[in-house]
Amino acid sequence: MVFRSIDGIPLREARIGEQLEFYLTLQPDNAYKAILPRECMFSDREDMQSPETHRITFVQGSCPVISVGEIIDPVQHVNQEVFFSKFKTFRFRNQSTVFVHCTAQVCLTKEECATTCFKQIKNSELDAARLRFRHKRDTSVRRSEAQIEDITGVIQVYTETEQKEILSRAAPLLGLSSTHLYFFSALLLIVSIASIIVIVYLLHRLNRRNKESTFDLYSAAQLRSMANSSASLVDRYPGYPLHVHTALD
Fold first, then answer.
1. CA–CA separation, 114 and 35 (whole Å)
2. Where are the beta strands (DSSP E) in the chain?
3. What is the greatest pairwise CA distance in the chain?
């Protein structure tokens, strides 16, 4: 069971009078090919056995209840895999929690769940696979051996005043979070700048060390070349001082 806004956004709460979309879909089980709602109702309690429970039934005897059309549109289906409708949110007296209960039969073949009560429409963008996996945990399901599922969904319905009060109570917490966020952002910026400075300093030292190493190698090569030249002159003119040999050349 899934509740979505008219924009397709999954919702767990809404403002009173807001229009929502209601979906009842197959569970992730390749064995079953179709589903058939037997009974669906709104209530103010999760315990449907309580004598004090208030309820509004919109599916009964595997057919939509037309008399509650002002509250919820007649349920329709897509390929016997998705049953859906639209309704305007309301409350039972002053209770903000509204429960939606459905008893549905799941079938191994589409013929077992064949129905003429629910209007069938074609919608290539709406199928069970796109709804059931993403919202698997949004509802509670009890499966019996008779292939009957009891499904319960919950929606919180608030007035405009209650929504403002909720936001006002949450504002201090949001402000505190923003302060912490600014602090950590500033700290992260300082650490980043310090890291950049350290990296530039280390690169400068490494570059300087490479230049010194290159100069030392160049100097050593020059000295080695001069030594080789001197040795060559001595070999050519043995017994003479080096400066004499040079003059004779």
1. 9
2. 2-5, 13-15, 19-25, 34-43, 55-60, 63-64, 76-78, 82-88, 97-107, 119-120, 140-143, 148-158
3. 132
Q: What is the rounded CA–CA span in Å between residue 31 and residue 224? A: 88
DSSP state of 68: G
Same structural domain, 170 and 153 = no
List pLDDT tens digits, range 77-136: 988 888 999 999 999 988 899 999 999 999 888 888 888 899 988 765 665 555 554 444
Angle at 116 between CA 110 and CA 122, to 5 degrees: 70
The count of structural domains within the chain is 2
Are residues 140 and 181 part of one domain? Answer: no
Query: How many H helices and E strands in the chain?
Result: 3, 12
Torsion (CA) 51, 56, 61, 63 in degrees, nearest 10: -170
Q: Which residues pair with 103 in a beta bridge?
A: 39, 150
pTM for the complete prediction? 0.59
